[in-house]
């Protein structure tokens, strides 16, 4: 087991890459999908079940944890890994994005962001220094710089101003993080959909120096076409020998398109959230289990899937427990969705290593185009 954080690239195929991130808490195979454990849990899943789906790393949310139960309490209880019973790597976001999207009465200054909690209205302040402190208290393995970004579309000037503030905060984050062997600090590229600003941001981050780099400010309402256009150039502006993380993405076809463009890590609430609203992701697209066409269907969701939901239960049962609002419905569909997302990543890792990513991608789209199996 390594004592330091490192990244090694094993193979590339076009712009797609596969490799390994090594940390003292275990290895992360890339491209990697990180399930989101917002409030110190991946909803409806035991940690060992999340691991069984093939996840190497989880994401935790600084904003939620600082408000409840607080980072200080988690630290007193031995840190986030022990608290939530997940001993493998954890990446935490900086809280910046969620403060801007969830908190009330936000006020943004050079110093940071003051806001009121969406839970009890209490007043808080997040700064680069406070965000680094919270993520250290949590014991996060991969710490994200404190930043902020506008929703898209936005004017060039507005994006530039926000990006330059985030770059000043990146320097303050780096200074506050200090030297912590075994822990990584990732910088976050901003610049919206403006190529010149993405370049300026990448230069600023490279000058500071980070263990990994995120492409931030996407998946904020711009749509897939704009996102892919930015990914056509943005990842290549970042150091080749460090992991590249696309934050908050996405749907299966977003993920495939991002990996194709050189992204190594992603996270999204989609598989777990959709599991609770009756949506299942399969090789043949999205299946809405609440649809009446499933009510007497004895077949599994996906006959080629080896998850517990597909191995042991029929569509008719999954339909029934969803309609009856039984807790097992969220458990089974979340498990299936996380399993599907991890299988997707494994398929891409294998295809990149074998130099056949283009063929794999063609098959991926062809299977989805077939659509769900015919109703009985
Ligand atoms: Zn399944």
TrEMBL record:
<dbReference type="GO" id="GO:0008616">
    <property type="term" value="P:tRNA queuosine(34) biosynthetic process"/>
</dbReference>
<dbReference type="GO" id="GO:0046872">
    <property type="term" value="F:metal ion binding"/>
</dbReference>
<comment type="function">
    <text>Catalyzes the base-exchange of a guanine (G) residue with the queuine precursor 7-aminomethyl-7-deazaguanine (PreQ1) at position 34 (anticodon wobble position) in tRNAs with GU(N) anticodons (tRNA-Asp, -Asn, -His and -Tyr). Catalysis occurs through a double-displacement mechanism. The nucleophile active site attacks the C1' of nucleotide 34 to detach the guanine base from the RNA, forming a covalent enzyme-RNA intermediate. The proton acceptor active site deprotonates the incoming PreQ1, allowing a nucleophilic attack on the C1' of the ribose to form the product.</text>
</comment>
<feature type="binding site">
    <location>
        <position position="305"/>
    </location>
    <ligand>
        <name>Zn(2+)</name>
    </ligand>
</feature>
<feature type="binding site">
    <location>
        <position position="147"/>
    </location>
    <ligand>
        <name>substrate</name>
    </ligand>
</feature>
<keyword id="KW-0862">Zinc</keyword>
<dbReference type="InterPro" id="IPR050076">
    <property type="entry name" value="ArchSynthase1/Queuine_TRR"/>
</dbReference>
<keyword id="KW-0671">Queuosine biosynthesis</keyword>
<keyword id="KW-0808">Transferase</keyword>
<dbReference type="InterPro" id="IPR002616">
    <property type="entry name" value="tRNA_ribo_trans-like"/>
</dbReference>
<dbReference type="GO" id="GO:0005829">
    <property type="term" value="C:cytosol"/>
</dbReference>
<feature type="active site" description="Nucleophile">
    <location>
        <position position="267"/>
    </location>
</feature>
<dbReference type="InterPro" id="IPR036511">
    <property type="entry name" value="TGT-like_sf"/>
</dbReference>
<feature type="active site" description="Proton acceptor">
    <location>
        <position position="93"/>
    </location>
</feature>
<feature type="region of interest" description="RNA binding">
    <location>
        <begin position="248"/>
        <end position="254"/>
    </location>
</feature>
<feature type="binding site">
    <location>
        <begin position="93"/>
        <end position="97"/>
    </location>
    <ligand>
        <name>substrate</name>
    </ligand>
</feature>
<dbReference type="InterPro" id="IPR004803">
    <property type="entry name" value="TGT"/>
</dbReference>
<feature type="binding site">
    <location>
        <position position="310"/>
    </location>
    <ligand>
        <name>Zn(2+)</name>
    </ligand>
</feature>
<dbReference type="Pfam" id="PF01702">
    <property type="entry name" value="TGT"/>
</dbReference>
<keyword id="KW-0479">Metal-binding</keyword>
<keyword id="KW-0328">Glycosyltransferase</keyword>
<feature type="binding site">
    <location>
        <position position="217"/>
    </location>
    <ligand>
        <name>substrate</name>
    </ligand>
</feature>
<feature type="binding site">
    <location>
        <position position="336"/>
    </location>
    <ligand>
        <name>Zn(2+)</name>
    </ligand>
</feature>
<feature type="binding site">
    <location>
        <position position="307"/>
    </location>
    <ligand>
        <name>Zn(2+)</name>
    </ligand>
</feature>
<protein>
    <recommendedName>
        <fullName>Queuine tRNA-ribosyltransferase</fullName>
        <ecNumber>2.4.2.29</ecNumber>
    </recommendedName>
</protein>
<comment type="pathway">
    <text>tRNA modification; tRNA-queuosine biosynthesis.</text>
</comment>
<keyword id="KW-0819">tRNA processing</keyword>
<comment type="similarity">
    <text>Belongs to the queuine tRNA-ribosyltransferase family.</text>
</comment>
<dbReference type="GO" id="GO:0008479">
    <property type="term" value="F:tRNA-guanosine(34) queuine transglycosylase activity"/>
</dbReference>
<feature type="domain" description="tRNA-guanine(15) transglycosylase-like">
    <location>
        <begin position="15"/>
        <end position="369"/>
    </location>
</feature>
<comment type="subunit">
    <text>Homodimer. Within each dimer, one monomer is responsible for RNA recognition and catalysis, while the other monomer binds to the replacement base PreQ1.</text>
</comment>
<feature type="binding site">
    <location>
        <position position="190"/>
    </location>
    <ligand>
        <name>substrate</name>
    </ligand>
</feature>
């Amino acid at each position: 087991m390594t004592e330091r954080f490192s990244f090694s690239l094993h193979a590339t195929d076009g712009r797609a890459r596969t490799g390994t991130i090594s940390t003292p808490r275990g290895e992360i195979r890339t491209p990697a999908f990180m399930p989101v454990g917002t409030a110190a849990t991946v909803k409806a899943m035991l940690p060992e079940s999340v691991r069984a789906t093939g996840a190497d790393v989880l994401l935790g949310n600084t904003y939620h944890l600082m408000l409840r139960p607080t980072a200080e309490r988690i630290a007193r209880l031995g840190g986030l890994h022990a608290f939530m019973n997940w001993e493998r790597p954890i990446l935490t976001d900086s809280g910046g994005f969620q403060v801007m999207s969830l908190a009330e009465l936000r006020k943004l200054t050079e110093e940071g962001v003051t806001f009121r909690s969406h839970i009890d209205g209490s007043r808080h302040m997040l700064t680069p220094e406070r965000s680094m402190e919270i993520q250290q208290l949590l014991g996060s393995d991969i710490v994200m710089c404190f930043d902020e970004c506008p929703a898209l579309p936005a004017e060039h000037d507005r994006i530039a101003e926000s990006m330059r503030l985030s770059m000043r905060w990146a320097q303050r984050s780096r200074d506050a993080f200090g030297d912590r062997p075994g822990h990584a600090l990732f910088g976050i590229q901003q610049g919206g959909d403006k190529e010149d600003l993405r370049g300026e941001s990448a230069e600023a981050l490279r000058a500071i120096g980070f263990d990994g780099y995120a492409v931030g400010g996407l998946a904020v309402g711009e749509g897939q076409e704009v996102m892919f256009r930015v990914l056509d150039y943005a990842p290549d502006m970042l150091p080749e020998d460090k992991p590249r993380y696309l934050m908050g993405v996405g749907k299966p076809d977003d993920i495939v398109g991002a990996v194709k463009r050189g992204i190594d890590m992603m996270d999204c609430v989609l598989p777990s959230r959709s599991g609770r609203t009756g949506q299942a992701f399969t090789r043949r697209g999205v299946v809405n289990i609440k649809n009446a066409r499933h009510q007497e269907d004895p077949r599994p969701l996906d006959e080629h899937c080896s998850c517990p939901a597909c191995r042991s239960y029929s569509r008719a049962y999954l339909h029934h427990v969803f309609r009856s609002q039984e807790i097992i419905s969220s458990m089974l569909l979340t498990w299936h969705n996380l399993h599907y997302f991890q299988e997707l990543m494994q398929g891409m890792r294998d295809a990149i290593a074998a130099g056949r990513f283009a063929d794999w991608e063609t098959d991926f789209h062809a299977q989805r185009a077939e659509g769900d199996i015919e109703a009985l």
